[in-house]
Design brief:
Largest sheet: 8 strands, parallel, barrel
Radius of gyration: 27 Å
Number of domains: 3
CATH superfamily of the largest domain: Aldolase class I
CATH class of the largest domain: Alpha Beta
Cofactor: FMN; [4Fe-4S] cluster
Strand content: 15-25%
CATH architecture of the largest domain: Alpha-Beta Barrel
GO molecular function, one term: iron-sulfur cluster binding
Oligomer: single chain
Protein name: 2,4-dienoyl-CoA reductase-like NADH-dependent reductase (Old Yellow Enzyme family)/NADPH-dependent 2,4-dienoyl-CoA reductase/sulfur reductase-like enzyme
Shape: globular
Keywords: Flavoprotein, FMN, Iron, Iron-sulfur, Metal-binding, Oxidoreductase
InterPro entries: Aldolase_TIM (IPR013785), FAD/NAD-bd_sf (IPR036188), FAD/NAD-binding_dom (IPR023753), NADH:flavin_oxidoreductase (IPR051793), OxRdtase_FMN_N (IPR001155)
Strand order of the largest sheet: 1-2-3-6-7-8-9-10
CATH topology of the largest domain: TIM Barrel
Length: 687
């Protein structure tokens, strides 16, 4: 198993490899990856960069830092490859600095929805906020082509000197070499354009020059798109088969299969190299495998069983995994040990790729340590402390798990009858969340944490436990928003949904919102163990739900949009309204674009920027941003907003003299990603 190349955006400001870069790749080597691929190393640094903190290899001064990384990775028995890259027409670094973008042909008009999805703070940090003028382009002449070929060859020589075990040429996605390969971006009429053979000439010349620089025996392979989605006149799998054969004849030892997608629509943001759909381009990779005699490396959301099937059927020779090794660097070791249940799951939220798109350091929602391996460490304690964790959501469970692993004596208090918190609701609307909740539960069951369900924490109750430290992970306060009509019986808020879907006791007000038949079914579900299981609820809800056909959701952030998608897939006519100017707070931008596109495709009506919302017996009224009064029919209304921080227990505990830390939504709504990061940070501070 290979760790496929990923840009981590961890280099020092001058492109050197520092401790953060070293620790990131070393963690994947320690976790058992046979080969670690160091992604997107700039052959023309500082030109052609696609990340602010991209590693360079354009001068000999980069070799010592790179050598530190290769030695660290190799010390764990892993091999390490250098992925050589030039951004070309996608170089945000050149755009920001006002340099012309290298391209084979005059660019054709294209559009991306990404910038329009971003909130002001995201724009400010991202390349979009730092590009101050329209990009210019340099149509590459033969001297330019020769220069870049030489830059790749020189970079390959430096990679060998730095101790790398192999080299991957990045000829995929929207970068320079790909822009020659794809007919969508190459309209040249000379020997570098037209036929597939001509469009591949640039790649072939780079391969030949590298072979002259490093010899025939050093491992060298090329990564290119085996198909392009959502691009008019794009690169096809038939093109890919021919390019693979040409690359093999030129001297590559293997092919890494990838893909690329246009992003004029939101779904295109999650249809390329790291797709939302499982094994999205595996069949195309297997067709390329049939066209060549060198190995093919397959990737692209491959679950373990699917990866095994591809290898067994001879449709791939090696498996590359990226996001899964961000979530769990130890995944390969766990597969070898035969303990797949121990693997921390990726939840496919696209936070990792979104952070890179925003020019931030890579992060993982499921693993608060990812990208911060050199900054946050968890070591066995020298003095075990008595710790009480209040709240059994993801943040509380992860904090308890880490502190237990460090050797502390941990008690976890959860007020409800089950672990998971509001993430259980999220798992019903978005299934991958449930995998993380289930993993956290399994980890706690295997440790020494004293889990006390049905234990509502109060200051007096905590005092009786005599803790040295208290961690408060109680989640956000979810008060019913002050909207006219919110008290009506057909209006549900988060507390009502928790009772309905999870079987948690409600108050007298929420009980009256459900019919006698619904209450009877809920009681039966509790007895049979059906209520409280996100998987069973997801299945059963396709047959019956205690909601009418026309639903209005008030709230356009992560909760409201995922709920809208869930209900629309179950035949409901859904409208989402909110007073926010843009929808999607809490969703990483790439996932945000995909879900908004999906909702539009399913006919969900989305109306941001409204005001004067009032709920009536059969409809919801509001005024839109143009000042037009609107009314939307509603059999039921769901209030998916109103969550706020709740530090009341933290304040009480600190006033009573307890060392107290806050984790997750109680300190500000940040959803699973922030809860897991908080857990990693807090656990590291308790010695």
């Amino acid at each position: 198993m290979f760790q496929t190349a990923m840009g981590s955006n961890h280099a020092e400001p001058d492109g050197q490899c520092g401790d953060r870069t070293l620790s990131f790749y070393e963690a994947r080597a320690r976790g058992g990856a046979a080969l670690v691929n160091m992604g997107a190393i700039g052959v023309a640094y500082p030109h052609g960069l696609v990340m602010r903190n991209q590693v360079g290899i354009s001068e000999d001064r980069f070799i010592p830092g790179l050598r530190r990384v290769t030695r660290a990775v190799q010390s764990h028995g892993a091999k390490i490859a250098a992925q050589l890259q030039h951004g070309g027409p996608s170089s945000t670094g050149d755009m920001i600095d006002g340099r012309p973008l290298l391209t084979p042909s005059p660019p054709t008009p294209s559009s991306s929805v990404l910038s329009g999805l971003l909130f002001d703070d995201e724009i400010e940090e991202s390349p979009f906020g730092r590009i101050t003028h329209a990009p210019t382009f340099r149509i590459m002449d033969k001297a330019d082509i020769a220069l870049v070929v030489r830059q790749f060859a020189d970079a390959a020589r430096r990679a060998v000197e730095a101790g790398f075990d192999g080299i991957e040429l990045h000829a995929a996605h929207g970068f320079l070499i790909r822009s020659f390969l794809s007919p969508a971006t190459n309209s040249r009429t000379d020997e570098y354009g037209g036929s597939v053979e001509n469009r591949a000439r640039f790649l072939v010349e780079i391969i030949s020059a590298i072979r002259q620089a490093i010899g025939r025996d050093f491992p060298l392979w090329a990564k290119f798109n085996v198909v392009e989605f959502n691009i008019e006149n794009g690169f096809t799998v038939d093109d890919a088969c021919i390019v693979a054969q040409l690359a093999q004849r030129a001297g590559v030892d293997a092919i890494t299969a990838s893909s690329f997608s246009g992003s004029a629509r939101g779904k295109g943001l999650v249809s390329g190299s790291a797709p939302m759909n499982p094994a999205n381009y595996a069949s195309y990779a297997s067709k390329v495998r049939e066209a060549v005699s060198v190995p093919v490396i397959a990737a692209g959301r491959l679950e373990i069983d699917v990866a095994n099937d591809l290898l067994a059927a001879g449709k791939a020779d090696f498996i590359g995994m990226g996001r899964k090794l961000l979530a769990d660097p130890d995944l390969p070791n766990k597969v070898v040990a035969g303990t797949p249940d121990e693997i921390r799951p990726c939840i496919y939220c696209f936070l990792c790729l979104s952070e890179i798109a925003l020019d931030r350091h890579v992060r993982c929602a499921a693993n608060g340590m990812t990208g911060r391996e050199s900054l946050v460490t968890h070591s066995p304690t020298k003095s075990s402390r008595k710790v009480v964790v209040v709240g059994g959501g993801p943040g509380g469970m992860e904090t308890a798990r880490l502190l237990d692993k460090a050797g502390h004596r941990v008690t976890l208090l959860e007020a409800s009858g089950q672990l998971g918190g509001t993430a259980l609701i999220a798992a019903i609307a978005y299934e991958p969340n449930g995998r993380l909740v289930a993993w956290l539960k399994r980890q706690l069951s295997k440790g020494a944490v004293d889990v006390q369900l049905g234990s509502k924490a109060s200051l007096d109750a905590i005092k009786t436990l005599e803790p040295d430290v208290v961690i408060v992970a109680t989640g956000a306060a979810r008060d019913r928003p002050a909207i006219s009509g919110a008290h009506l019986s057909h209006v549900f808020d988060g507390n009502d949904l928790r009772e309905l879907l999870l079987g948690e006791p409600g108050n007298a007000d929420s009980i009256t919102r459900f019919s006698l038949a619904t209450r009877a079914l809920m009681a039966s579900g509790r007895k049979l163990g059906l209520i409280g299981s996100p998987q069973l609820i997801r299945r059963a809800s396709r047959i019956w739900m205690p909601l009418g056909k026309q639903i209005v959701i008030i709230g356009g952030d992560l909760v409201g949009l995922e709920l809208a998608e869930f209900l629309a897939h179950r035949g409901r006519s859904v409208t989402v309204v909110d007073d926010t100017a843009k929808f999607g707070v809490g969703l990483a931008p790439l996932r945000r674009g995909a879900i908004l596109d999906e909702l539009e495709t399913m006919g969900v009506v989305m109306v941001p920027g409204v005001h004067a919302i009032t709920i009536h017996e059969k409809d919801v009224h509001c005024t839109d941003r143009e000042g037009v009064n609107r009314a939307f029919a509603a059999d039921n209304v769901i209030l998916a907003k109103g969550a706020t921080e709740d530090l009341s227990l933290v304040t009480q505990l600190r006033a009573a003299g307890f060392e107290t830390h806050a984790v997750g939504d109680c300190r500000g709504v940040g959803y699973i990603a922030q809860a897991m990061k908080d857990a990693a940070d807090v656990a590291a501070t308790i010695e």
